[in-house]
Design brief:
This protein is mainly alpha-helical. It is flat, with a radius of gyration of 14 Å. The chain is 73% helix and 0% strand.
């Protein structure tokens, strides 16, 4: 699925990261985007806890970094 998305001619990267980088620091849109990214990381954290991973916080942070880096 992601490979198809990346291969599209109009692919421009992760919209969340673009908003963070391109919007004014502290603007409402930047704050809302940062909050959404935090919610996604918290979702990963909950999955890791449910799976009884030894370091769920570390896994969630690494998973988030890998996801953002892949996009």
């Amino acid at each position: 699925l992601m490979g198809e998305w990346f291969a599209e001619d109009d692919f421009q990267g992760c919209p969340f990261l673009r908003i963070i980088c391109e919007s004014e620091v502290g603007s409402p849109v930047q704050k809302a985007t940062a909050q959404k990214l935090a919610q996604i990381q918290n979702y990963f954290l909950q999955l890791a806890k449910a799976a009884k991973v030894p370091d769920p916080q570390g896994l969630a942070a690494a998973w988030m970094m890998l996801m953002e880096g892949a996009i």
